C-alpha cells in the first residue's frame, strides 16, 4: 500500500469514526403552519432553517421559551410531522423519507398523557413495552425494573388520571424508558415534578447513558435544568437556533457581565433619583428588578442602594454570575418565557 | 456531512396480534375503571325503551315485539361502540394522545381493532341483560339468544369502525361527540322502531345502518322455526360492513396520527 493510500485510508477511517459518533443530523429544516381559516389565515414559521448535529451518548438540549419552535422540531424528529423542506437523519436513517422508522430508533415522551390516563401506572408501562415490540415476559420484567428504578412502586396500581401532575409525568417517563432505544427524546420531562422525582429522572438518564451510550434530546424552558444536566444546548428563539454550545461555552459569551437582582418589599421607591435612574434600564418582573452590568458598576450600585434610603424599601438583593437566561437575552431572545 | 452515516439496525416492529392483545387488555382495564357507570346508563336506557314500547306494541310475541327486543339489545352495542368510541378517538386526537401510539412501532390495525374489541366486549353484559329482560317482558323465546354472542362482535365491529372513523375524521372534538350522538340516535330510532311502520325513504336509511343487520339477525331467531339461511346472510352483511368500516377506521387513524 502506498503512502497516499495509507493516508487516504486513515482519513476514511477518521471520517467514518466521526460519522458513527453522530446520532442525529438536522439540516435546514423549515416547517410552517397555517393559522386561522379562509382569508384570515396566516403562515407561521415554526422552524425557520434549523440545523444541528447531536453526538452519540450526548445529552443535548433545546432551550427556549414557549412557542419558540422546540416541540415542532422534536415532532419532526420523531416522525410525527413532516418538514416542508430540509433533512433529518437519525442513526443513519432518513426520517423525512421514512418517518415510520423513528419509532424503531427512539423513545419519545410527549407533553400529553391522554392515551395512558386511565391505565394504572403498571399497565401503562407494560402496554407501552409490548407496543415497543417486547415479548410478554420481557415487557413484564422491564416494567418491574422501571417501576423499581423510578420509585413508582407505591403508585403502581393507581390510574394515571388519579395522580398529581408530577407523578403522572414520572409514570409517562417510565413508559418512555420501557424497551431500549438508542435515542431518548424527552419533551419537558420534569414539568410539575418535585426534586425527588427530578433526581430520579436524571439518574435514570445518566445510567442509560453510561451503560448503553444512550443519546438524549431534551426540550426544556428551565434554565437551571439546562445548565446542570446538558452537555450541549441549542438556544431556540422564534423558530431559529440562535446559539449552540456547551452551557459553559455559552456563558463565556457574556463573561464580564453580572446580574444584580433587587426585590422591593412593596412599590419601588421611584421618587429616589438613584432608583428612578435604575428604572430606565432594569428588566421588571413584578417586584423584582434585574440589572445587567459590569462587576465594577454592580458593586457601586449595591453600595449605593444598601447605604441610602432605598435600602428601607428593599426586601432582598443578589449579585450573580450570568446564567443561560442572560445568554438568551444577549443573543436577542425575547424577555419572558424562560423558567429559572 | 458528505459521508453517508452507517445506519444502525432498526428495533423490531411490534407484531399485529401481540400488540392487538396488549391494546385490548389495556383498553378493557380502562373500560372497567372509567366506563362502568356508562354501561349502566346504556343498559337502563335500553330497558327504559323496552318498558315504553311495551305500552305501544303490547306484551305479545308479534313482529313488532321482536324488533323492539332485538333493537333494544343491539342499542347497547351502538351506545358503547359508536357513541363512546367516537368520543374516545375524538378526544385522543384533539388532545395529542395519538402521538403516544404513533411513536411506537405498532400497526394501526392493532390499535383500532384492540380498542374496538375491548369496547365490544364491554357491551356483552348489558346486551345480554337487555335481551333477557326483553324476552321476559314480551314473552319471547330465548333459546336462540346465544346468537347475541355472534351479533355483538359483528355489529360491534361495524359500529365501532364507524365510531372510530367519525372520531378520527371530525375536524373538532365537539363535532366527533355530536356525530357519535347522532349515530346513536339513528341506531335507536331505526333499530328499535318496527320497520313495517316506517316510510320507504326511512327504510332505505335503515338499510344503510350497519347495526340493522345485527338487529334483524337477532329478531329472526325469535321465530318458532328461524330461517337460518337469512340469519346467516344478515350476519354476513354485518361482517362485511364490519371489515369495511374497520378498514376505514384504520385508514382514518393513520391519517390522524401522521397528520401535519
TrEMBL record, chain A:
What compartments host this protein?
Cell membrane
Signal peptide location in the record?
none
List the GO molecular function terms. ATP binding; ATP hydrolysis activity
Topological type in the membrane? Peripheral membrane protein
Q: What's the name of the protein?
A: ABC-2 type transport system ATP-binding protein
> Is Nucleotide-binding given among the entry's keywords?
yes
| Keyword tags | Antibiotic resistance, ATP-binding, Nucleotide-binding, Transport
Q: Which residues form the ABC transporter domain?
A: 30-263
Q: Which InterPro entries match?
A: AAA+_ATPase, ABC_transporter-like_ATP-bd, ABC_transporter-like_CS, ABC_transporter_ATP-binding, P-loop_NTPase
Keyword Electron transport part of the UniProt annotation = no
Name the coiled-coil region(s). Answer: none
Judging by the UniProt lineage, the source's domain of life is Bacteria
Identify the species of origin: Streptacidiphilus jiangxiensis
UniProtKB/TrEMBL annotation, chain B:
What does the UniProt entry say about where the protein is found? Answer: Membrane
Its transmembrane ranges are 36-57, 69-89, 101-122, 142-168, 175-195, 228-253
Q: At the top level of its lineage, which domain of life is listed?
A: Bacteria
- Provide the Gene Ontology terms for cellular component: membrane
Keyword check for Transmembrane helix, yes or no.
yes
Q: Where is the ABC-2 type transporter transmembrane domain?
A: 32-219
Any keyword Ribonucleoprotein?
no
MF terms from GO for this chain are:
ABC-type transporter activity
Which keywords has UniProt assigned to this entry? Membrane, Transmembrane, Transmembrane helix
What membrane topology does this protein have? Multi-pass membrane protein
- What's the name of the protein? ABC-2 type transport system permease protein
The uppermost taxa in this organism's lineage are:
Bacteria, Bacillati, Actinomycetota, Actinomycetes, Kitasatosporales
Amino acid at each position: 500500500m502506498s503512502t497516499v493510500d495509507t493516508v487516504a485510508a486513515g482519513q476514511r477511517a477518521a471520517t467514518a469514526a466521526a460519522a458513527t459518533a453522530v446520532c442525529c443530523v438536522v439540516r435546514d429544516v423549515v416547517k410552517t403552519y397555517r393559522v386561522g381559516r379562509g382569508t384570515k389565515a396566516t403562515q407561521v414559521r415554526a422552524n425557520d432553517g434549523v440545523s444541528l448535529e447531536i453526538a452519540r451518548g450526548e445529552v443535548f438540549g433545546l432551550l427556549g421559551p414557549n412557542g419558540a419552535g422546540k416541540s415542532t422540531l422534536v415532532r419532526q424528529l420523531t416522525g410525527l410531522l413532516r418538514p416542508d423542506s430540509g433533512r433529518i437523519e437519525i442513526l443513519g436513517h432518513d426520517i423525512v423519507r421514512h418517518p415510520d422508522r423513528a419509532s424503531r430508533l427512539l423513545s419519545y415522551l410527549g407533553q400529553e398523557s391522554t392515551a395512558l390516563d386511565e391505565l394504572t401506572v403498571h399497565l401503562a408501562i407494560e402496554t407501552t413495552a409490548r407496543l415497543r415490540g417486547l415479548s410478554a415476559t420481557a415487557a413484564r420484567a422491564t416494567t418491574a425494573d422501571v417501576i423499581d428504578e423510578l420509585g413508582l412502586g407505591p403508585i403502581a396500581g393507581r390510574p394515571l388520571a388519579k395522580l398529581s401532575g408530577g407523578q403522572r409525568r414520572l409514570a409517562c417517563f417510565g413508559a418512555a424508558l420501557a424497551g431500549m432505544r438508542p435515542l431518548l427524546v424527552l419533551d419537558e420531562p420534569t414539568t410539575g415534578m418535585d426534586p425527588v422525582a427530578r433526581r430520579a429522572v436524571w439518574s435514570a438518564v445518566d445510567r442509560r447513558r453510561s451503560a448503553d451510550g444512550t443519546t438524549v434530546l431534551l426540550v426544556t424552558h428551565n434554565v437551571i435544568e439546562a445548565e446542570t444536566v446538558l452537555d450541549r444546548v441549542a438556544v431556540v428563539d422564534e423558530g431559529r437556533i440562535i446559539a449552540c454550545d456547551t452551557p459553559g461555552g455559552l456563558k463565556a459569551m457574556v463573561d464580564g457581565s453580572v446580574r444584580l437582582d433587587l426585590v422591593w418589599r412593596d412599590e419601588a421607591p421611584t421618587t429616589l433619583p438613584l432608583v428612578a435612574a435604575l428604572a430606565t434600564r432594569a428588566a421588571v418582573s413584578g417586584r423584582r428588578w434585574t440589572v445587567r452590568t459590569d462587576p465594577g458598576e454592580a458593586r457601586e450600585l449595591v453600595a449605593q442602594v444598601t447605604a441610602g434610603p432605598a435600602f428601607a424599601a428593599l426586601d432582598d438583593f443578589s449579585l450573580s454570575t450570568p446564567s443561560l437566561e442572560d445568554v438568551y437575552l444577549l443573543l436577542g431572545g425575547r424577555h419572558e418565557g424562560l423558567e429559572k | 456531512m458528505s459521508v453517508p452515516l452507517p445506519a444502525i439496525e432498526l428495533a423490531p416492529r411490534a407484531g399485529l396480534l401481540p400488540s392487538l392483545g396488549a391494546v385490548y387488555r389495556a383498553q378493557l382495564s380502562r373500560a372497567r375503571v372509567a366506563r362502568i357507570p356508562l354501561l349502566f346508563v346504556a343498559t337502563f336506557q335500553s330497558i327504559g325503551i323496552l318498558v315504553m314500547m311495551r305500552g305501544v306494541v303490547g306484551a305479545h310475541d308479534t313482529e313488532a315485539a321482536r324488533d323492539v327486543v332485538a333493537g333494544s339489545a343491539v342499542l347497547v352495542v351502538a351506545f358503547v361502540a359508536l357513541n363512546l368510541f367516537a368520543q374516545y378517538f375524538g378526544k385522543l386526537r384533539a388532545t395529542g394522545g395519538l402521538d403516544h401510539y404513533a411513536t411506537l412501532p405498532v400497526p394501526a390495525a392493532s390499535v383500532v381493532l384492540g380498542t374496538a374489541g375491548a369496547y365490544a366486549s364491554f357491551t356483552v353484559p348489558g346486551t345480554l341483560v337487555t335481551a333477557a329482560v326483553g324476552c321476559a317482558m314480551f314473552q319471547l323465546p330465548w333459546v336462540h339468544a346465544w346468537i347475541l354472542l355472534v351479533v355483538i362482535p359483528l355489529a360491534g365491529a361495524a359500529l365501532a369502525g364507524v365510531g372510530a372513523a367519525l372520531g378520527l375524521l371530525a375536524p373538532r372534538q365537539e363535532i366527533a361527540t355530536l356525530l357519535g350522538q347522532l349515530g346513536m340516535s339513528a341506531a335507536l330510532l331505526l333499530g328499535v322502531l318496527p320497520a313495517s311502520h316506517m316510510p320507504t325513504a326511512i327504510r332505505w336509511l335503515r338499510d344503510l345502518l350497519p347495526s340493522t343487520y345485527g338487529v334483524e339477525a337477532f329478531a329472526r331467531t325469535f321465530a318458532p322455526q328461524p330461517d337460518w339461511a337469512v340469519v346467516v346472510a344478515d350476519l354476513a352483511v354485518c361482517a362485511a360492513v364490519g371489515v369495511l368500516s374497520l378498514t376505514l377506521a384504520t385508514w382514518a387513524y393513520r391519517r390522524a396520527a401522521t397528520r401535519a
